Structure formats: structure tokens, C-alpha cells
Amino acid sequence: MRIRITSASLAASVFLLSAALAPAQGPHAAKDMRMYDPATETTLKGTIEAVSEQARGQMMGTHFTIKAGDKTREVMLGPTKFITGKGFAFAKGDVVEVTGSKITMGAIDFVIAREVVKDGKTLTLRDKTGTPQWAGSGMRRRRAK
After folding, report:
1. What is residue 1's predicted lDDT score, i.e. its pLDDT?
2. Rounded to 10 degrees, what is the CA torsion of 67, 120, 103, 134?
């Protein structure tokens, strides 16, 4: 009996503590954790100078360096499988238009791509809030089977 009362008290305490801490994180806590910020959105037109694939970490996936006017920017796209699955590939010398959010990590300026236009075709990587198009796609595929 004593164990049941202690377990119930512990569960109630955890619930109350969670309820008390949730508002302290603020209404935009989840948004602030994401790197994409629609307020910093920009559009770049230029030529790809290099393409790379990052295999680890928060920035994994396909990246390229774009020369737009007199500036060179690093552009983060998304998972390589998603990009190739949409029929896109990028190479040095490709002329592209990138719309995305400007961020700075360390001392390096990046653009997190939302859309990339190449040869008149548009690759949409994220919606206007920055939510990736591939988010949850694995769950939908499994349910469809």
C-alpha cells in the first residue's frame, strides 16, 4: 500500500512540475530551436562553384557554394536522397536561383534553402515557415503499405 501511495505521489509531482515548466519556455520555444527564420529570407542568383555532401551532424545532406555577384555563399539544401528522389542533381557550373534563410554559424554565413530553381524547374525543400518537406515522409510511406 505504501509503495502505491509513493508511486502515485511521484507521478503527481512529475505532472505538476511539467505543467509549471511548460509555460516558462514561452510560446515560441519550438520555433526558436529551428535554424530557419522566414524574417531573414533572401533570394540569390548565381553559379554553383562546388557541391559537397555532409555525412554527419545537424548540417548533414547536400550543400553547395554559390557565387552570386561579388559574394560567395554556402547553401544547405537537405538530405541527398530527398533531392535525388525529386529528380534533381547539382554540379559545378550550374546556374541556380536559391530562396532561403540567411544564418551565421561560427563565422560562416549560410543560406538554408527553401527553394532552388534550376533549368526552369523548382525544387521545394521547405514550406514558407521552414518546415522540411521530408519531415515525416517515412511515417507516411509506412502507413501507406
Report:
1. 53
2. -140
